[in-house]
Amino acid sequence: MDTGRLEAFSDGVLAIIITIMVLELKVPHGADFPALWSLLPVFLSYVLSFVYLGIYWNNHHHMLQVASRVSGSILWANLHLLFWLSLVPFVTGWMGENNFAPAPTALYGVVLLIAAIAYWILQRAIIAEEGESSLLAAAVGSDLKGKLSPVLYAVAIPSAFVHEGISGGCTCWWR
Q1: How many CB atoms lie under 10 A from the CB of residue 171?
Q2: pLDDT tens across 87-101, in order?
Q3: Please, what is the Cα angle at 24 between 173 and 43, to 5 degrees?
Q4: Which of 49, 110, 130, 162 is the least crowded, having the fewest Cβ atoms under 10 Å away?
């Protein structure tokens, strides 16, 4: 299979995920600006997750652009990543609706951590198919950010029970 079909499928899944997230934004009951204030945590969690999904979409696109073919292991690794990303609307909504309470924020961190691991697995599957001298292997290099992100997500999970600001800082460090 060529990479175009996999990329098109993944683009569609990510578009649906973002659509589900935006549909969770409820219209306020009041007709004035203070009525929007109560929706601020929901909106902020949406923005955060939209940016995350945008980063995954962008990186996924670039990763598939340097791949020449798709194997069964790449297909399964891609589905694994899409599964974890499909949970983003749920944890985003739960976290936003509960004003970044510890348990929803920790679960958000868990989903981010496992999605990062799933992305790494997909990356390794493509490199295994293309070879260690491939364009992707060269582009990834030592990938300090890719190694640091899961560590910070892992720190963010228990930090959610200490203070949401610490947890938020660990998940938003790349901004």
Answers
A1: 24
A2: 999 999 999 999 999
A3: 40
A4: 162
